[in-house]
Amino acid sequence: MIEEALTRARKARLFILEKMLAVMPTSRIHLSQYAPKVVLVKVPQDKIGEVIGPGGRVIRAIIAETGATVDVDDEGTVSITGTSEDGVTRAKTWVESLVREVHPGEEYEGTVKRLMPFGAFVEILPGKEGLVHVSQMAIGFVSDPANIVKIGDKVKVRVIEIDDQHRINLSMLFGEDAKKPVERRAPRPFGNDRGGFRRRH
């Protein structure tokens, strides 16, 4: 009696396995597109403020533009979650760009974000901007940055200096042009209109 019951149970299991294999003959290589994605990024504690931004402005922008959920703890662990793999990847790239060190001599293709009387602010990495002073836009005197670039333009720039306030100074001059004397104008105003950062607890 017991042997007969075990035989029937074995046949039932084999029947179920055959049906399962018919539907999915191999294991899934990729998770469902609806499965939650989780990525952890470790950032230096002194860079947490750059990820959060003044009043939380930067982290809110990351969430709004990527659709991912982003949380930062006091140890510098950034947790990025979401159902969109693309959104999570974009948020991860954004966070990594924010804490990446920029060095003089590096070249970037950036996007003009803001125009001021003294120059143009160019985003060289997601969330990271530098200033191209009017004296570094072209050979000769530039009376108005809008005569050279407009908001949204893609421009090639190189990093010429990181000042003592960790602000990035850029140039659109390359090669022989970079060696020529440039028209000097007043330096950028103190504080560069970006505001300060105060971390909330």
Secondary-structure topology with pairs:
Elements: H1 2-23, E1 37-42, H2 48-52, H3 57-66, E2 69-72, E3 77-82, H4 85-99, E4 107-116, E5 119-125, E6 128-133, E7 154-162, E8 168-171, H5 175-179
Parallel strand pairs: 6-8
Antiparallel strand pairs: 1-3, 2-3, 4-5, 4-7, 5-6, 7-8
Helix pairs in contact: 3-4
Describe the structure in your own words.
With 201 residues, the chain is an alpha+beta fold. Among the domains are: 37-99, K Homology domain, type 1 (Ribosomal Protein S8, Chain: A, domain 1, 2-Layer Sandwich), CATH 3.30.1370; 107-179, Nucleic acid-binding proteins (OB fold (Dihydrolipoamide Acetyltransferase, E2P), Beta Barrel). It is built from five helices and eight strands; from the N terminus they run αβααββαβββββα. It has helices at residues 2-23, 48-52, 57-66, 85-99, 175-179, and strands at residues 37-42, 69-72, 77-82, 107-116, 119-125, 128-133, 154-162, 168-171. The strands form two sheets. It has a five-stranded mixed barrel. A three-stranded antiparallel β-sheet has the order 1-3-2. Helix 3 (57-66) runs antiparallel to helix 4 (85-99). The relative contact order is 0.12. The model is unreliable at 194-201 (pLDDT under 50). This is Polyribonucleotide nucleotidyltransferase. One of its GO terms (molecular function) is mRNA binding.
